[in-house]
């Protein structure tokens, strides 16, 4: 029977230490967060933003509404311009109406008493997306008849975060996460680059 040859004691300890160091390095690399590759937005989303952004900037100059807010609301309210309300009636912001000659009754989701319900509501119709955008800016300037100053905090906000929160506080939408959704869209698509 051949005698088993062992490494001299210092070399054996060195080999064990080397294995431990390598194992620690591998574990640390596995735990380190890997950078996520940049995700390119769909071409239709980019086109939608580029089409509306110049007029949103024009409206900012006239009415002091941040383009990032205008764009994020248009995206959220119209599902990138694909909702029936937007695609057939150019209503990008879910603005309601009362005159049967210039509005249509449609089903919509409202958040009431802690849950989502489907209701019928009358929404304004517009001849173009630009007309819808201007009416949205005018709504924020003039407020509803019952409170002309309702949206003043939105226009006075110095950041899109503050403007989004002011919209939610004013009750623009019944969705309790409305401001967070707007902020998330602005960040995801860099919409604040259009703000002056």
From TrEMBL:
Entry's family note: Belongs to the glycosyl hydrolase 73 family.
Coiled coil: none
Family annotation (Pfam families): Glucosaminidase
Boundaries of every Mannosyl-glycoprotein endo-beta-N-acetylglucosamidase-like domain copy: 38-195
Alphabetical UniProt keywords: Hydrolase
Name of the protein described by the UniProt record: Glycoside hydrolase family 73 protein
SMART domains: LYZ2 (SM00047)
InterPro entries: Glycosyl_Hydrolase_73, MGlyc_endo_b_GlcNAc-like_dom
Keyword flag Hydrolase: yes
GO MF entry, a single one: hydrolase activity
